[in-house]
Amino acid sequence: MNNLEESHKKINTKQVVDNELRYLSPIKIETKVEKKYCFFEKRNIKYIDYKDPTFLIKFLNAQGKILPRRITGTLQKNQNKLNSAIKRCRQIGLLPFVTDDLR
Question: Can you give the pTM of this predicted structure?
Answer without folding.
Answer: 0.66
